[in-house]
Amino acid sequence: MPAYLIRHAKAQQGDMLVEDPALALTIRDGWAILADQHGICLAIPAEHVAGIQRVDEDQDGDHQYTGPAPGE
């Protein structure tokens, strides 16, 4: 099952793990968007994200987003 670990840019916010059988990550227009067959499950402004890493056992490739470069 796809699972993504989201690390917040501000360490005191804590990390978030999101899992869903049909979960997909898209980075678009400054947003990190997690969606399944029903639509958007979670959308986070990219500047609030320090990193997103796919952490499930059935990874089908390298899915890691490290956030925008400082000053972007």
In short:
This protein has 72 residues and is mostly beta strands. 0% of the residues lie in helices and 51% in strands.
Termini gap: 33 Å
Q: Give the proportion of residues in helices.
A: under 10%
**Radius of gyration in whole Å, from Cα?**
12 Å
The figure for the number of domains is 1
Mean residue pLDDT? 82
Number of strands: 7
Describe this structure in words.
The protein is mainly beta. The chain has one domain. The chain has no helices and seven strands. The strands form two sheets. It has a four-stranded antiparallel sheet, with no helix packed on it. A three-stranded antiparallel sheet has the order 3-4-5, with no helix packed on it. The mean pLDDT is 82.
Topology:
Layout: E1 3-8, E2 15-19, E3 24-28, E4 31-36, E5 39-45, E6 49-54, E7 64-65
Antiparallel strand pairs: 1-2, 1-6, 3-4, 4-5, 6-7
